[in-house]
């Protein structure tokens, strides 16, 4: 069975207002924060995709406004394969949702995804690399690999040469 590899460059965290000012789109996104009455640590609540602009997708998003406190938005661009399609976006979303089970995602939580390896690189909003993991994504491994039977996960150390 062929194993698909997808590399995502995540940028953030953004506020809703900051995303409204961006002309970026065609990628994945993560919503982090706390829902009403939630007391435990803030974490990723939803993973989604869009082929349009993020700001247009978020205007009336059915899950975004369920996060009432500490909202952080992470935007993910597929960096590999360079020529990617909606299938790559859907597959990356499926791996993240199935592995991590974000509470606001309903679809893709119950059916095993196609064998895929997701490699996540994390960046600040200005595009510079994050050397230290923020608490929001510390539970989302930099590498998540599903071969159809076993999960393999791990984190990447970032340092300058």
Would you mind describing this structure in some detail?
The chain has a seven-stranded mixed β-sheet with strand order 3-2-4-1-5-6-7. It has one domain. It is an alpha+beta fold. The radius of gyration is 15 Å and the shape is globular. It contains three helices and seven strands, in the order βαββαβαβββ. The protein starts with a strand and ends in a 7-residue tail after the last strand. Helices cover 16% and strands 39% of the residues.
Radius of gyration: 15 Å
> What portion of residues is helical?
10-25%
Number of strands: 7
**Helix- and strand-based class?**
alpha+beta
Question: How many H/I helices?
Answer: 3
End-to-end distance: 36 Å
Give the neighbour order of strands across the main sheet: 3-2-4-1-5-6-7
Low-pLDDT runs of 5+ residues are none
Report the major sheet: 7 strands, mixed
């Amino acid at each position: 069975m062929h194993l698909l590899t997808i590399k995502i460059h995540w940028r953030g965290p953004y506020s809703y207002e900051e995303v409204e000012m961006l002309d970026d789109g065609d990628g994945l996104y993560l919503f982090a924060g706390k829902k009403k009455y939630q007391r435990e640590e803030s974490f990723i609540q939803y993973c989604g995709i869009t082929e349009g602009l993020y700001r247009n997708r978020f205007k009336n998003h059915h899950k975004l406004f369920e996060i009432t406190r500490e909202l952080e938005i992470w935007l993910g661009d597929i960096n590999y394969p360079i020529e990617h399609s909606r299938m790559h976006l859907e597959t990356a979303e499926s791996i993240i949702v199935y592995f991590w089970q974000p509470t606001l995602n309903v679809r893709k939580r119950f059916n095993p995804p196609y064998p895929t390896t997701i490699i996540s690189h994390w960046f600040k909003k200005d595009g510079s690399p994050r050397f230290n993991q923020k608490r929001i994504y510390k539970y989302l491994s930099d590498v998540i690999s599903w071969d159809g039977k076993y999960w393999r996960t791990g984190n990447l150390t970032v340092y300058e040469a």
